[in-house]
Amino acid sequence: MAEPITQTAKPRTVTQFLTAVFELRPSRRKAAVLERVRAASEAAFWETMASCRPVADGAVGAEKKARRDAVAQITAAALRAGSRHRLVEPVAQGLARDVSMAASSYIELRSNGREAEWPVQHVEAEHAYETALDAFRTALTRDDENLARDEFSRVTRPVMPRPMTIARERDAQLLRERENGPVVAVLNIVSAREKAARTTIIKAGVNAATGEAIPAKKSATRLIVPISCSKWHENKFLSGRCALKSSIIYRKGERWFMMAQFAFETVRVETSGALGIDRGLVNTLSGAVVDEAGGVKAVLPISGSAVGEAIRAAEGRARAYQRRTGRTIPLHRRGANQILHKITNEIVARAKSLRSRVVMENLDGFKSALVSKRAKGARRSSWQKALKKAQLGKIEQMLAYKLALAGLPAVKTVAAGGTSVTCSACGQRDAKSRASQDRFECVACGHAAHADLNAAVQIARRGVMKVTKGDKLDDLHKNMVADLRKRGDGGLGPMAAGAAVGFVAGRVSVSALYDPSGLGAGAGQNVTSCDQNIRKDVLAEPVAPYLETLPDEKAVAAKEIAQGRGGAPPNVE
Predict the structure, then answer these.
(1) What's the CA gap between 524 and 2, in Å, rounded?
(2) Is the pLDDT assigned to residue 527 strictly greater than 70?
C-alpha cells in the first residue's frame, strides 16, 4: 500500500524594496539619445500639469469616486501628451505614473484640509543682487530687513532637469554577458521610427539582478549603456538575488545616472522573546534580550557618545563649507551615518541569531520636536539640539528596512514611562533608584546595574507582556518578576552576577561574555550599506570607576576580563 504523500508547507517570505544608484557611461551619440527622450518626457509632463490643473482643483473635496475619476482623466491626458511628443510606450507609461502620483497627492492633501502646491515648472533666473542691497539699506522694519538679507544672500542655482521614469522591469534590465563580466543597462526608450534609430544586437548573457539566462536577440528600440558602480553595490544588487522593478534616468550636468528599485525576497524568521533597545542622549544605544517569560538571556554593548561627537564634527565641517562657498551639502554627515549603520548592524545580527523581536520606546512625542515648525527668527531649544544629535528617528528608520531584509518583524514600540527607574530584580519603581546618569541602584532590594542596561530590560519585558485594556504596566512587571524569582538567577541571567556584569559590559564585547547561546555578534545576516564582510562589536565608553564599588574578588575578576586576561564572569551560570 502506497504511503500518503505529505506536503511540506512553504516558508513564509517577506518582500523588501531597496534603491541603488548606478552611473551610466553613454557615448556621445547615446547621451544625445538619452537627452532627447528625457527632454520630450519633461515637456510632456509640464504640458499635462499645466492643462489639467482645473480638473484637479475641481476634484478637491469631492467624493472618493469623483477623485479617482479625476486622476484617471489626468492620467489619460498624460498618455496623449506622450504620444504627441513621440515617446515610446515604456517612457509614456512612466510619464503617466509620475503625473498620476503628483495629481493624486495634490487632490488627497487638499481634500483632507492640508496645504499642497500644484507642481509648476521653475525657470532659472538671476536674483537682483544690487536691488536687494538697496532694499536692505532702506529697510525700516525687521521683517523688511530679513527679506532683503535673504534675497542678497541667495545663491543662484541652476534648475535641475526633470528625470524620466521607466515603470516596468522588462523595459530596463541590467545584463551581464559572462560571469564576472561588465554590466550594461538595456533601456527600451528609442522609437524604431526615428531616423537615428539603429539595430542593436543584445548578446546572450544573464540578468545581473535575478540570475536568469537571457538569449541573444536584435532590437531597434533598445539602448545599451555601460554602467559603473562600487563593489558593494555589485555584490548587493547584481548577484542574482533580487529583481529590478522600476528605474529613473536622470542627468546631473554632463553625467547620467540610473536610480533602480530592487525587490528582495527573504524567508520570514519566527521569533521568540524580545530584544529591548534603550536610546539616550549620552549613551546612544544599549540593549537586552529576554525570553517569552521575561528572563534575561543576553545583554548588548553600550554605545557611547561617538554618534554625538561625529554629528557635531560633521556640523562644524558643514558650517565651514557654507562660509567658504555659500552653499550647503549633506555629505558631511556620512561619518555619523556610518556609525549608525554599524550599530544597527549589530542589533539586527543579534536579533536574528537569537530569533528575537526588536522592541524600542515610543519616542514620537520627542521626535516631533525635531520637525516642528519654528517661528521665523526663533532659535532652536537646547533640548531639540540634543535630540537631533541623538539621531533617534534615523536609528528607527535604519532598523525598519534592515529587519525586513533579515526576515524579522518590524520594530515594536512600547510606552517609555518608568523604564529608567524600575528595578529589573524586584519590580519596584522609584526615581531615587537612578543614582546617576549611568548607575542604577534599587532603593528597595539593592540591585545595582548600569542604568541603560536596566532600562533596556524593562523595554524588552514590555515587548513580551500580554497587555489588555486597563492593565497597569507596573503591576504586570511585578507579577512577571514574582514568577522569575523561582529561577536560580531570579530571571536576571547575565545580570545576576551584580554590578560587575553590568559595568564590564561597557568595556568589552558582551557577545564574548554573556551570550549563553554561543552565537557570536556576527551571527545572522548583515544587511546594511557598510562593512558587509567585517562584523565588529559596538563598544561602550570606559566605565572603570564603577568597578571600585564592587566586592574585591568580583572587581579583580571583572578587571581581568576587561583587560582580556580573565575567563567567564563570576557567578554566571
Answers:
(1) 41
(2) no
